[in-house]
From TrEMBL:
This is TetR/AcrR family transcriptional regulator. InterPro entries: Homeodomain-like_sf, HTH-type_TetR-like_transc_reg, HTH_TetR. PANTHER family: HTH-TYPE TRANSCRIPTIONAL REGULATOR PKSA, HTH-TYPE TRANSCRIPTIONAL REGULATOR RUTR. Residues 58-77 bind DNA. It comes from Streptomyces anandii. Residues 1-36 are annotated as: Disordered. Gene3D superfamilies: Tetracycline Repressor, domain 2. Residues 35-95 form the HTH tetR-type domain. PROSITE patterns: HTH_TETR_2.
Length: 218
């Protein structure tokens, strides 16, 4: 019987290298598919919260909306609490991103436009989903700590971005409170919009606030 030749060893090495490349190429799409499935589940969880509230947002409902099986959903999020805790963070990140993307170049100059854009964030689906999470967190111990932590972070970032976009000088007495008062008002408008379309009244309120802020911040 002949021994293993140099060519045999080269062929084996080449075959192993091809197998390794194939395995790596196969893993990448699988990882991409896994990330895409997780993303769909989180987006579906947020949408379900916004439309159905906490009580109507089960893992099965979210999985169906995301177009995946319940088993696939539970592979990524074994429990309902796991799913919606992740959704809390997803909502917080998306709201922060939306804030940063309002005016990519920094301070916008037009305070009326800034106010309108900020109010729109408080009346959109992400804020609506966040509200349902707040309500759920008030009764769900596993959610409360995470929601409180993330909302505090989003609140700080919202205030900082609002100060920047409005060109507000917080070294002046009362400026911080003025900006925060507007954000509290915007949050209240978001709450009012839950039951009915409050667009017309909201536009008048925002216009009045823009005038008040021009006088208070200059």
């Amino acid at each position: 019987m002949g021994g293993v030749t140099t060519q045999d060893r080269a062929d084996r090495a080449d075959g192993a290298d091809r197998a390794d490349r194939t395995d790596r190429a196969d893993r990448v799409p699988k990882q991409d598919r896994s990330r895409a499935t997780r993303q769909r589940l989180l987006q579906a969880a947020v949408a379900c919260l916004a439309e159905h509230g906490w009580a109507g947002s089960t893992v099965s409902v979210v999985a169906e909306r995301a177009g995946v099986s319940r088993g696939a959903a539970q592979h990524h999020f074994p429990t309902r609490e796991d799913l919606f805790t992740a959704a809390v963070e997803y909502v917080a990140e998306e709201r922060s991103t939306a804030l940063r993307d309002l005016f990519p170049e920094g301070a916008a100059g037009d305070r009326g436009a800034v106010l309108s854009a900020l109010v729109d964030l408080f009346t959109g689906p992400l804020f609506r989903a966040a509200l349902h999470l707040w309500v759920a967190a008030s009764n769900e111990d596993q959610l409360r700590a995470r929601v409180t932590e993330l909302e505090a972070r989003v609140g700080r970032e919202t205030h900082r971005i609002a100060v920047d976009l409005l060109g507000a000088d917080e070294s002046r007495p009362g400026t911080r409170e003025t900006v925060q008062g507007f954000l509290d008002m915007a949050r209240g408008l978001g709450l009012a919009n839950l039951l009915t379309d409050d667009t017309t009244r909201r536009e008048r309120v925002v216009a009045q606030w823009a005038e008040l802020l021009e006088n208070a911040l200059d």
